[in-house]
Amino acid sequence: MLAAKLLAAVAVVGVQAAVCPYKDYPSGWIIVADGNCSSSLTTCATTNTCDRTATKTYPAISSFSGWMGVGNLADYTYTNLTLKDTPSLTIARMSLPNTVTTLTFDNVTKIDLANTALTQWSSVKTLMVLNSPVNFPNVGVVWPTNLDLVVLSNNAMNNIPQYLPTTLTQLAIQSNYLTDLVYLPKKLVFLNIAANNFKTLVNADLRSVKYLYMSNNEDLTKISAVQFSDIAFVKMLNCSKLSDIYLDATSYTALNKLQPWNGDDETDTPAGYTINYPVASNAAACTAAGGSIQKLWESTSKVSVTACVTGGSGTMTRSVVATGVSFSTTRQCDNDRATDAGWQQYVVLATTTTNHVV
């Protein structure tokens, strides 16, 4: 009789382990809000064996520190979820309810983004990865289908992740180590590239961008063949080394029509330009490139800004791009606010010491 009971117990444990969806998760606590919890509408911790005897119930909160994995959160009631302060986070079997629209990872060293084929997070419209040196794989990421805004701030990133979802209209990738705009999504309306390591900005199609934040790029010396069309706001403070701007005629006209920004950080639709260092584009180099020197914002700017303007509206040749200087890793904060519907609440500029609303 005793032997039969032992065999039955072993069989139950075996079935439990076999059906646990988190069996491939590493050891450690997994946050869930499902049948593993003692009651509905609660958040609790479980393990990769789904052992109910090991579960711990947590109060109704939306920010969690130190977790190793995320599981089924069907009974989670908040619209935002923050996971932070952990060396590694597994989300392969994460399942979010339709109510969760904002997901934040803060100070997370590793996330298994390449294993998201079964991740259920289609409700997420805003994804923020802050203060996290996460590796974004080039293949294997199944992004949320409704993702619109991605914030990648202070992550020591050297390049824009390849294959970001085509649904994006807003990207904030400030306070990193970017040196170019390769892999920039094509349909962006809002772009924040403040406080990076650009030496030059070259051959970038920003014709869809309405709101551009590019302050505190201290080593930026040249802007060339960057196209604008529908630009409504540009902030380029503290770009002290910027000495040359090359624009096609259409892009020059789009920028030159802007009026000085009124400094209103609360508006949902900022308009105008702000710049605080002069730019004196090289006249001889401009002539050699087939362009002519034109003043930007001649009657309104407090500092003199000249650009080399070419007659066409196509992409300029690389011959006008001079070799830049070496770049530093100095970080400064652009205390801007990203202000179009939904941006002001989520788009943050994070540094290692402080967070700033963009």
Automatic annotation (TrEMBL):
Keywords: Signal. SUPFAM superfamilies: L domain-like. Residues 1-17 form the signal peptide. This is Uncharacterized protein. The lineage of its organism: Eukaryota, Sar, Stramenopiles, Oomycota, Saprolegniomycetes.
